[in-house]
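Feature request, filed as a ticket because there's no other form

It would be nice if the structure record came with a short human-readable summary line next to the tokens. Right now we just get the raw output. Example of a typical job, pasted below so the devs can see what we mean:
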Amino acid sequence: MIQFASRMNNLKGSAIRALLALANRPEVLSFAGGMPAPELFPIDKIKAATDAVLDEQGKVALQYSSTDGFKHFREQIAARMEAKNGIKTSADNILITSGSQQGLDYSARVFVDPGDVIIIESPSYLGALNAFKACEPNFIAIPTDDDGMIMEELEKVLATTERVKMIYVIPDFQNPSGRTWPLERRQKFMEIVNKYEIPVIEDNPYGELRYEGENMPALKSMDTKGLVVFLGTFSKILAPGYRLGWVCAEGEILKKYNFMAQAAALQASTEAQLVVSKFIDMYDLDEHVNTIKDCYRKRRDVMVQTMEREFPPEAKFTHPNGGLFAWVELPDYINTNEMAKICMERNVAYVPGDGFFPDEGHNNCIRLNYSCMSEEKIEKGMTILGQVMKEEIAKHKG
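Raw output as currently delivered:
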């Protein structure tokens, strides 16, 4: 009989992946995936950048390259991190990965042994939980409010818990909740982290997609002890199909990530790196990001306005200032997994919230994505979803 490694007991297929397969039908109004709008991909410019790369250095583009990534590309990323996140860094502190998902996988493997503790926000990103589970950790989820992780609760856990190996957070437009930490909370967090000297994984896939208000400095920009590992990606600001992300970390930590990358993947795609780098040289990436933001801002507005109008008063939801997601909490007696089946019968798809927590329960939550559907479809879908919610609440009230 075939015997699998014990870690496989912790790994299950993602609920989101299963849902996306159903939601891919053309008649379905899908608010399930965290997908960028494909109509915004700059295909002509990407084609021109690709042609230029293949014309100028085709033999380089199709060959193996170094594990850490092309220096010019890492320099472009370092410059962008300073401009957008207030992080002063250099190409020497950056490792190119196959999407930030690979950075998440490496993070657990670099820091965590079976039985070690990973601290996360409650709720947290499902893809990170799945990546970390392969290392067989114990999770401690810190409660959150409208401003993100509650620092008093974090300090209590750190003061009383052994074997805490890392803290995983998404301070900007969190997936799934859409919440953003204000400045005071970031400062308090770094105070606590410096006191206990625990490595932090700061996941920042959505930071550039702010629709109003001022940009917040990244945790990494406040990092005086080299404890913060910053994960970035081009998936949400250019094209996810290239699978290009990066890790920014200090000396010894980055060296360990580099060793992990050598063992696991050798390198990220040579051609993808050169094409995205050429795109940044040839065109204005900020202009492209502004186009994305204009589109998503309108879609966010339509979703929030329709939810305010059509959802029952029992439904509480976030009002994100950026990113791709809104989060809905319904009364405890509503099971959003069961409700999802009813919605699918009416051609509306969403992701039930229980997968975003490491423990059982939390069946009354929903994650909604607004980036991938037109404004008309968002309004129609939220109206149907609101109707189903009202019906389910009425059933309970009898």
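Something like this underneath would help us a lot:
The first strand starts at residue 29 and ends at 30.
The chain is about 45% helix and 15% strand.
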